[in-house]
């Protein structure tokens, strides 16, 4: 069998060889120019696929960081608002103590009432604080409009009860700002566990100075009524009207029953009574408004003055409990801010690990690439030299 090698075939083979080497050299040049090993997915399909997944993980970490920045801003603004609310509570407490002075006249109490009205308006403004982006801090997830508004002499809440959860790191969530119902509305009265008050219509000067739980194992959470009779006698009955204890009242003494005690001062009249039972709840706006209404009155009798003093004593207890709630709310926000810092450390560590892995997949090994470039360049030059020499080959040069 005879094989014929044509000049055309030799030319084609040489050209194909040079083009292939030029392509490899161009690819290496592109790697060197970009600093990337993976110029296209076909360079290493497995590594390219893995890198795409890691890119998504890095982008997700960036999104978590944006979430964290947004909620951190809102929690910081919540802290500022609650600090100012706490300052307002402290000022209200000072004003109530001043107003509770028996020597204070009507004009002075009315002046205090005027300041309380300004504080009431300020509290409403704080409750409607925004995050600077048009969203309200204390509206829960319904934060597109002001959550609190005056209505019928009181304040209504149009937000919801939901506290948004925000993911700030993989599988790590923090709570957004508290809903306003938890901060301003559902505030426990009394000392937070029990609450007492004089019955409306008392005609004596009896004052409820305080109360407390003395034995939690005996206290059953019921409601009791302390009633006074003739000759300073008293009787305590439960919610069903059943007698619990009785005795003779001595001014300033504590009357103990059912695991609790009440301290009464002044002189209750025959038929006067006081109640004691589990704490209820009241919004801070109603508490302040109640103070304003009390101070706007002008008592003329001892019984009216005693009623005013009892109201002020009750307000001081409610304000004290409200101050404790504000401290708890600030502590809750502080815990979330601390969690955000922890999440930032976790994101940073994960980001470094992911980028190191990406670098190993994509980044060019410069020493290897430069050496490969020199070899490919030399190979291309050799192919070009061979081609040039092949062009000079001719049978006519052998004749003669």
From TrEMBL:
It is found in: Bacterial flagellum; Secreted. Residues 200-278 form the Flagellar hook-associated protein 1 D2-like domain. Keywords: Bacterial flagellum, Cell projection, Cilium, Flagellum, Secreted. Signal peptide: none annotated. It comes from the Bacteria. Residues 319-398 form the Flagellin C-terminal domain. The keyword Ligase does not apply. The keyword Secreted applies. Residues 5-141 form the Flagellin N-terminal domain. Belongs to the bacterial flagellin family. PANTHER family: FLAGELLAR HOOK-ASSOCIATED PROTEIN 3, FLAGELLIN. This is Flagellar hook-associated protein 3.
């Amino acid at each position: 069998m005879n094989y014929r090698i044509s000049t055309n075939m030799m030319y084609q083979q040489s050209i194909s060889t040079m083009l292939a080497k030029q392509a490899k050299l161009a690819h290496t040049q592109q790697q060197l120019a970009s600093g990337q090993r993976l110029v296209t997915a076909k360079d290493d399909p497995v590594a390219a696929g893995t890198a795409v997944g890691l890119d998504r993980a890095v982008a997700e970490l960036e999104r978590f960081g944006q979430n964290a920045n947004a909620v951190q801003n809102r929690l910081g603004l919540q802290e500022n608002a609650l600090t100012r609310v706490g300052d307002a509570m402290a000022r209200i407490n000072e004003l109530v103590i001043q107003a509770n002075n028996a020597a204070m006249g009507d004009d002075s109490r009315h002046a205090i009432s005027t300041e309380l009205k300004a504080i009431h308006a300020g509290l409403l403004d704080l409750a409607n604080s925004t995050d600077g982006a048009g969203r309200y801090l204390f509206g829960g997830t319904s934060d597109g409009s002001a959550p609190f508004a005056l209505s019928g002499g009181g304040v209504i809440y149009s937000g919801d009860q939901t506290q948004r959860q925000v993911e700030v790191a993989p599988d790590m969530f923090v709570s957004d700002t508290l809903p306003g119902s938890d901060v301003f509305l559902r505030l426990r009265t009394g000392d937070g566990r029990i609450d007492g008050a004089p019955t409306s219509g008392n005609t004596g000067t009896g004052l409820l100075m305080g109360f407390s739980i003395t034995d939690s194992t005996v206290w059953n959470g019921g409601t009791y009524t302390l009633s006074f009779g003739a000759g300073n006698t008293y009787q305590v009955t439960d919610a069903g009207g059943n007698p619990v204890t009785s005795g003779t009242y001595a001014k300033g003494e504590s009357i103990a029953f059912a695991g609790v005690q009440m301290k009464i001062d002044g002189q209750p009249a025959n038929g006067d009574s006081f109640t004691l039972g589990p704490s209820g709840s009241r919004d801070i706006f109603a508490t302040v408004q109640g103070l304003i209404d009390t101070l706007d009155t002008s008592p003329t009798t001892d019984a009216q003055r005693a009623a005013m003093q009892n109201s002020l004593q009750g307000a001081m207890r409610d304000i004290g409990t409200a101050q404790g709630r504000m401290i708890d709310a600030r502590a809750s926000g502080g815990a979330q801010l601390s969690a955000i810092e922890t999440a930032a450390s976790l994101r940073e560590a994960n980001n470094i690990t992911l980028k190191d892995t990406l670098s190993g997949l994509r980044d060019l090994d410069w020493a290897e690439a430069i050496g490969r470039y020199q070899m490919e360049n030399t190979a291309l030059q050799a192919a070009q030299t061979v081609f040039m020499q092949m062009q000079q080959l001719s049978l006519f040069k052998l004749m003669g």
